[in-house]
Amino acid sequence: MTVNSLNQVRPTQSLRGHVDVLIVGAGISGLGMGHYLATMQPGKSFAIVDSRDAIGGTWDLFRYPGIRSDSDLHTFGYEFKPWTSDNAIADAHEILDYLHEVVDEDDLGRRIYLHHKVLKADFDSATAQWTVALERDGEHFEVTCDWLFGATGYYDYAGGHRPHFEGEEDFEGRIVHPQSWPEDLDYTGKKVVVIGSGATAVTLIPAMAGEVEHITMLQRSPSYVMPLPRKDPIANSLRKVLPAKAAYAATRRFNIGKGRFIYNLCQRHPKLARRIIRSLNVKALPEGFEVDTHFNPTYNPWDQRLCAVPDADLFRTIARGKASVVTDRIARFTKTGILLESGKTLDADIIVTATGLKLLPLGGIQVSVDGEVKNPHDSLLYKSFMISDIPNLAFAFGYTNSSWTLKVGLVCEHLCRLLAYMDRHGYTTVVPIVDDPHMDKRPMLDFSAGYVQRSVDLFPQQGSTGPWTVEMDYWADHDRLRKGSVEDPALRFSTAVGAQAVSRLARA
C-alpha cells in the first residue's frame, strides 16, 4: 500500500460513536496493535487515530537528511512480518514502505483516522467506558470506547529539546532543529555546525557531508559510537537457503541474543567493552586522530544508548576530511558562528541544534477516572503496559537498551489474551491495584541520558517486586507476557451492569 492508496481507503469523516478499542497513534506501535487485534480478536471493533496527516509516527515526522534506524530491522521489525530488505540498518523510507505493507495486509486502512488529536479521556466506572475528547481541524467531538491503548511513543511531537544559547539573535545564518527540518533548507557549499553527539548528530554528519563545504560535530562531551554493517551477512545468507519466515525468525532470535550479549558485556565488564569500542574507533579513524578526546566518554558503555553508524560512515567521512569533531563548550553564538569557551571559533552558515528530545507520556493526554484527573507519576507500572488505579488503559513502551519494537509485540499479544479472558468471564473492567502501600518506588527509566533525566518525573514509576518492575530484557518479558498468565492477584476484575455499548463501526 502507498500513501495514495491509503488515502483512498481510509475514512474521510470524523470518527463517531463507540469502538471496543481505541488506539492512539498510527506509528509502529499502533499499527502493531491493529494487527494483533485483527488476528487475535477479530470480533472486536477498533479504530486508530493520529493527530498527524500520515501514518508512520517517527519515520514520517523526522525529515532530516539520512534519517534511519539505529537498531537492526530484524529485531526492530514486527515478529509477524519478515524484514526482507538487504539493509538491516534501514532508512526511513524503507521502514515506511514496510509499515504500509502491514496496513494493506491487515486491512487497517479503513480503521485509520488521521488529523484526530486526542485531548483527554475520562473513564466512567458505572458504564465501564472511556469518553474520549478529540479535535479535528478545529472541531471538537467525543467518542466512547471500552479500552484505550496508548501507542503515542515517548517523546513530544510538538518539538524537541531546544536550549537557548547566548547570542542566538546575533547569528546571521540559519538555526534549525532536526525535529522541525525545513523543506527549503539548502546547505550546498555551506559551512555547517551540528551541536550534539547522539544518534541524530552522527546520522546528519555523513548524510550532509557530500554537499556542504565542511561540517563540524560540536559536542560538549563524547558518546560511544559503534560501527555496524548496514547489511547483515547472516540474515542475507539465510534468506538464500531458507523460506523467508524461517530465515527471519532465525535471524531475529540470533540478533536478540547478540544484542543481549553486548549489553551484558558492557554492564559486567565495562573496561573490556570500552577497550573493544575504542579499538574499533581507532581502526576506522585516521592515524593520529584524538580518539580519547572525541570518542571516549566518561560514563561506561550502555549507561547511555550506544550510537550505531552503518558501515562506519561517520568515521569514513571524517577520514576524507569532509567532517570534523570538536569537543568543547559553547560560550555564545556570534554573527558568523560559535565562540567556544576555549577561545576558538567555529564559522557557520547553518547551525543544527541536535540537542535531543522532550519526552511526553501518553502523548500529553489528560486521563481521569470518574472525573478525577490522574497524575501518571503518582502511579506504578503494571508489567510495563498498564498503570495502577487506571482501568482499561494499556500502552506500549519499548526498550531503551535494545530494539523498541521487541516489547511492542509481547505487550499487544498479552493484552489480546487479557481481552479474551475478560470476555470469557463476562468482565468489563480490569484495574491494577498496588496492595503494598510501602513498596519502594524508583523511576520508570533507570537511564542516565539527559533526555530521560529531564522528563522522568512526568512518567509513572516502577516498584521493587512482582509485576511492578520494569524489565529491560526481552526474555524476561517473554516469560512474563507471552508465557505468563493474564490472571494476577494485582488485577481487580469487575462487571458493570450498564456496560453494554452499541458500536457504530463495522466489526472486523
From TrEMBL:
In terms of domain of life, where is this protein from?
Bacteria
Gene3D superfamilies, alphabetized? FAD/NAD(P)-binding domain (3.50.50.60)
Record key words, sorted: FAD, Flavoprotein, Monooxygenase, NADP, Oxidoreductase
Entry's Gene Ontology molecular function annotations: flavin adenine dinucleotide binding; N,N-dimethylaniline monooxygenase activity; NADP binding
Listed cofactors: FAD
InterPro entries assigned: FAD-binding_MO, FAD/NAD-bd_sf, Flavin_mOase-like
Keyword NADP in annotation:
yes
One Pfam family this sequence matches: NAD_binding_8
What's this protein's family per the entry?
Answer: Belongs to the FAD-binding monooxygenase family.
Q: What is this protein called?
A: FAD-containing monooxygenase EthA
